[in-house]
Specification:
33% of the residues lie in helices and 23% in strands. It has 17 helices and 18 strands. The protein has helices at residues 90-94, 136-141, 165-171, 176-184, 188-197, 200-207, 212-221, 224-233, 236-243, 248-257, 260-269, 277-280, 294-301, 334-338, 363-372, 393-400, 405-412; strands at residues 4-5, 13-15, 21-31, 40-47, 53-57, 61-64, 68-71, 88-89, 98-101, 107-117, 123-132, 144-148, 152-153, 287-288, 313-317, 328-333, 377-381, 387-392. Strands 1, 2, 3, 4, 5, 6, 7, 8, 9, 10, 11, 12 and 13 form a 13-stranded mixed sheet that branches. Helix 13 links the parallel strand 14 (287-288) and strand 15.
C-alpha cells in the first residue's frame, strides 16, 4: 500500500472489517495546495446500491489491494456525497488534463495519479503518470512515464492567491494542537474561513484541541449540516462535551442531523455527569470478540487514527461487540500480544480488570484507579458487567488541568 495509482481503484470493491462489501470506488477527493506541495487526498467516493454515492475519509481505510479496499469500520456516513468548492475530483477533473513539465516546457497529458502516505500518515498525490502530447504521430509514438507532482506546472494554487490558500498550506503539516493554537491568534472571521476550508476529519481533530468557548463559536459558524458532519467525525466523548455547551434546542437539532448510528453513543454519553467515568469515557475503544486472534488485534491497533492511550490494549467481550457490549471478559495489552503467536486467541490472553469502573465513579477515584494499576486506559462497565467504554489517561488529564492550560502552552510559543 506504499504507492497506489488512483485510476486503478475505480470500480473495485470496498469492504467492512467482517469482509462484507459496502460498495465500489467511483472517485477520489483531494485538495490542492499552494506552490509545488502535493495535494492531500481526503477520501474516496463510494457507490452503494441504487447508485447512492457517499464519502469515506482516508482515515477509515486500513488496506488497499489490487481488487479491494478494506475499511476499519462498517459504520459509514450515509449522507449523499456533495463536492465542496475547495475539492478536486481526481478521476473526473485531473486525469486527461494537459500540463507542462517545468524543466523543458513539454506538454503532457495526465493518465494516472499515484498517492502515498507521508510521515504523519496523510495520503498525498506524489507522482503523475503522463504521456506526451503534440501531433498525431507524436501521440502514437509517445510512451507513458512518471514525474513528481513538483515537476509539473499548471495545477497547484497560486503562491499569490488571496484568501486562505497560503495559510492552509502552512497549517497542513502542523499537528492539530498547534493548528488550534494558531487559530486562537486569528480574528474570528479568519478562523471561520480556515474552518470552512478544512475537511471534516481535520477540523474535528483541531476542534478537540480548542477551549470550549472557541469550539462553540466555530461550530455555530459552520451551519447546521456541516456542524453535524464535523460532530460525527469527532470522538464521541468530545462531541458529547461540545454539545453539552449548547442550548438544549440546538443540541437536539444537531443530533437529529447526525446519522443515527453516530448520534446514539453521543446521546448516551450526554446522560452521564461530567466529572464521572461515564462522562469521561470514549465509547470506541478497541473491542474484540473471544474468537479474535492476536493477528486481528494487532491489525486493529495499527490504525493511525486511534489515540495512543487506546491503542495500548484491547478489550475482549462476548457478543454483541458494539457498546454497550455483551459481558466484559478482560483486557490484553499490546506488549502481551506481541509476545504471542499470531494465531493465538485473545480471549486466552485477556486479564480481568481487578475493579472495573462504573459509569458513576467520580474522577478522583478514576485517577487513583489508573495510578494504582499502572493503566493508560480502564474499562467502564454497567451493573450487568457489559462494557460501556473506556477512560484513558488523556481523558482524565484534560479535566484535571486548569482551564487555561492551553493559554500557558501557547504563551511559551513552543519553547520552555
Amino acid at each position: 500500500m506504499s504507492r497506489v495509482f488512483i485510476a486503478h481503484l475505480a470500480g473495485i470493491g470496498v469492504f467492512d472489517p467482517n469482509g462484507d462489501q459496502i460498495g465500489r470506488v467511483r472517485e477520489a477527493v483531494a485538495t490542492l495546495r499552494v506552490g509545488r506541495q502535493p495535494p492531500r487526498v481526503l477520501g474516496l467516493v463510494v457507490e452503494l446500491l441504487h447508485r447512492h454515492r457517499i464519502f469515506v475519509p482516508m482515515g477509515r481505510v486500513t488496506r488497499i489491494e489490487s481488487d479491494a479496499v478494506a475499511l476499519s469500520t462498517g459504520t459509514v456516513n450515509m449522507r449523499r456525497f456533495e463536492r465542496r468548492p475547495s475539492e478536486l475530483l481526481v478521476l473526473s477533473e485531473l486525469l486527461d488534463r494537459t500540463v507542462t513539465i517545468s524543466e523543458d516546457g513539454r506538454g503532457v497529458s495526465i493518465v494516472d495519479a499515484a498517492m502515498e502516505q507521508n510521515r504523519i500518515n496523510d495520503w498525498e498525490i506524489t507522482k503523475l503518470a503522463v504521456r506526451g502530447v503534440g501531433s498525431r504521430i507524436t501521440r502514437r509514438r509517445s510512451e507513458l512515464f512518471q514525474v513528481d507532482w513538483s515537476e509539473v506546472d499548471g495545477l497547484s494554487l497560486s503562491e499569490t492567491s488571496q484568501g486562505t490558500g497560503a495559510l492552509l498550506s502552512v497549517l497542513a503539516g502542523m499537528r492539530p494542537a498547534d493548528v488550534a493554537a494558531a487559530l486562537r491568534d486569528m480574528p474570528q472571521k479568519r478562523r471561520v474561513d480556515v474552518a470552512l476550508a478544512l475537511d471534516d476529519d481535520r477540523l474535528a481533530d483541531i476542534l478537540e484541541e480548542l477551549p470550549e468557548d472557541d469550539q462553540v463559536r466555530l461550530l455555530s459558524a459552520l451551519g447546521d449540516e456541516r456542524a453535524a458532519d464535523v460532530l460525527e467525525a469527532m470522538d464521541d466523548d468530545d462531541a458529547a462535551d461540545l454539545l453539552g455547551e449548547l442550548p438544549s434546542d440546538e443540541q437536539e437539532r444537531l443530533l437529529k442531523l447526525m446519522e443515527p448510528e453516530e448520534a446514539a453513543p453521543v446521546r448516551r454519553l450526554m446522560t452521564y455527569e461530567e466529572f464521572t467515568a461515564g462522562g469521561l469515557m470514549t465509547t470506541e475503544p478497541v473491542i474484540l470478540l473471544p474468537d479474535a486472534t492476536v493477528a486481528e488485534a494487532l491489525a486493529l491497533v495499527r490504525n493511525p487514527d486511534l489515540p495512543t492511550a487506546l491503542a495500548a490494549q484491547v478489550f475482549v467481550v462476548r457478543p454483541p461487540q458494539a457498546t454497550p457490549t455483551g459481558r466484559f471478559l478482560g483486557t490484553a495489552s499490546v506488549q502481551r500480544l506481541l509476545r504471542e503467536a499470531p494465531y493465538a486467541l485473545v480471549s486466552g490472553l485477556a486479564d480481568k480488570d481487578p475493579a472495573a469502573l462504573r459509569p458513576d465513579t467520580p474522577i478522583a477515584e478514576v485517577t487513583r484507579h489508573l495510578a494504582t494499576y499502572d493503566l493508560v486506559a480502564a474499562p467502564v462497565v454497567d451493573e450487568n458487567d457489559r462494557l460501556l467504554g473506556a477512560v484513558s489517561v488523556d481523558d482524565v488529564l484534560d479535566h484535571l488541568l486548569p482551564e487555561d492550560w492551553r493559554d500557558v502552552i501557547a504563551g511559551t510559543n513552543g519553547h520552555g
